[in-house]
Specification:
The protein is mainly α. Helix content is about 75%, strand content about 0%.
Length: about 180
Amino acid sequence: MSELASKNQLRMSFARWAMVTVPLVVLLGLLSGVIANSGMGNAWFARLTKPELMPPGWAFGVIWTLLYALMGLALALVLDARGARGRPFALVLFGVQLVLNLAWSPVFFGAHQAHFAVLLLAIIFVAAFANCVAFGRIRTQAAWLLVPYLAWLCVATVLGYQIDQLNPNAAQLGKAAGTAHIVR
């Protein structure tokens, strides 16, 4: 036997990585949203004027679950590329863009900072693009798995910009949402 590992063993290594990375990335995305009270049930968000092209609320959960799963698969491909040149740097870039991504919901839904959330989306796009390039140098498939994420970040940035423009007083709406009125 001249091989260190068979093709089947290598596939199993990727599968083991994916069984950890996919649920982990999806769970982190879910936790970020839950902690920030994101989504259509958020009272502050409900009061905002939405753009005409705003997708239905259910679409965001489906899209983000799919995107986080693809990100987890891309991560598994790169983790499985032991000894690949540039792998540590690519993994750091992945961590940076993921942390920035996970910070978006608390900034937008939690802190009610619509304007800063748009700027953060632009920063996330740059970090995710750099991550995509770095992953592509290691495994082409990993880069392609991040392309839908990059596309969605463009859509999200446009939606965020439109929300910011339609709601110049978004932060004040958040302060009003924090006051409780007890009716007897």
